[in-house]
Amino acid sequence: MTLEIDALHKRYGRTVALDGVSFDVRPGEIFGFVGSNGAGKTTTMRIALGVLAADAGEVRLAGRPVDLQVRRTIGYMPEERGLYPKMKVGEQLAYLAELHGLDRTTAQDAAAHWATRLGIAERLGSTVDALSLGNQQRVQLAAALVHDPAVLVLDEPFSGLDPVAVDVMSEVLREKARTGVPVLFSSHQLDLVQRLCDRVGIIAAGRMRTVGTVGEVRRSGGIRLEVHAPAAPPGWADGVAGVRVEHATGGRTTLVLDEHADDQAVLAAALATGPVHGFTVHTPSLSDLYREVVS
Predict the structure, then answer these.
(1) Core-most of 51, 112, 229, 234, by most CB within 10 Å?
(2) Helix axis angle, 133-145 to 104-117, nearest 10°
(3) Region of 45 on the Ramachandran plot (φ > 0 left; ψ -120 to 50 alpha; else beta)
(4) Are 277 and 232 in contact (CB under 8 A)?
(5) Is the pTM of this model over 0.85?
């Protein structure tokens, strides 16, 4: 099933929080939702869960508007701690599973399974407030998974985790996606988003600025070529279509190519000036593009 975010609008007084936000998360896909603080990520997610009402637009799961019954099939992990601090981990996970409709035995089995999978089985008898922040984050994810959700919506799930815990959580998300579950998560860790996600959406000031595969989004920032042609005169690349000179000094030129430019035409133009000692292609990272989009 596909999670559809369709033309969401939301205002708080004069502040526009969301301005026509649209994207979808497809079955078996991990979608990274990226933006600065206050860009609209959490507002979008809360509307998707029915915690907030949109001023306009709609959220659908498998073509059906999200109501109470549909919400019960969604696994949600909020950015802020949403657990009972004085309740034991195992009891809490089983309780949350029962709230989603599981019988007691199944709920207890699911709690034990996800605690083991996320490396906190030995803490099932501990209260949440006795755990480290990283382990609390693992319990939060277990709470989102314990009822076997049809879709996952996770707000900053990797916040505060050590590298080992990041690897464990990443693999869990991949496992869920491989079963056909759409996974939507927000994160400021753009290297992780680039590594983990099938597609990514960048939001700024309440508007979606770009949506696509990680490769498509990176290429949309323009491919850069670094050319070392010692004998090349100034302006040697001016006649090549789709090419802009970003920087040139001492026979070294950095060029920005649009999607229609031909790097072989650039190489031919450089060779026409004499020897070429270097010809390196650079695709901007997601972090580089993010800085351009939100600046």
Answers:
(1) 229
(2) 140
(3) alpha
(4) no
(5) no
Looking up tokens 């693992």 gives 138
Which tokens go with 101?
């409709």
- pLDDT tens digits along 156-180: 888 878 888 889 989 999 999 999 9
Backbone φ and ψ for 130, nearest 5 degrees, come out as -90, -5
Spatial strand order of the sheet with 56-61 comes to: 15-25, 3-12, 56-61, 64-65
C-beta of residue 81 within 8 angstroms of C-beta of residue 140: yes
The pair of three-digit structure tokens given for residue 173, joined into one six-digit string: 């998300």
Give the model confidence (pLDDT) of 99-152 as tens digits.
988 999 999 999 999 999 999 999 999 999 999 888 998 999 999 999 999 999
Question: Could you give the CA distance from residue 151 to residue 168 in angstroms, rounded to a whole number?
Answer: 19
Domains, the chain, ordered by start: 3-216 (3.40.50.300), 221-294 (3.30.70)
Q: Do you know the residue count of the chain?
A: 295
DSSP symbol at 156: S
CB atoms within 10 A of CB 146: 27
- How many angstroms separate the CA atoms of 93 and 111, rounded? 5
What is the rounded distance in angstroms from the CA atom of residue 182 to the CA atom of residue 122? 30
Q: How many CB atoms lie within 10 A of CB 242?
A: 16
Tracing tokens 């026979």 back to the chain, one arrives at 251
Give the tokens for residue 287. 């972090």
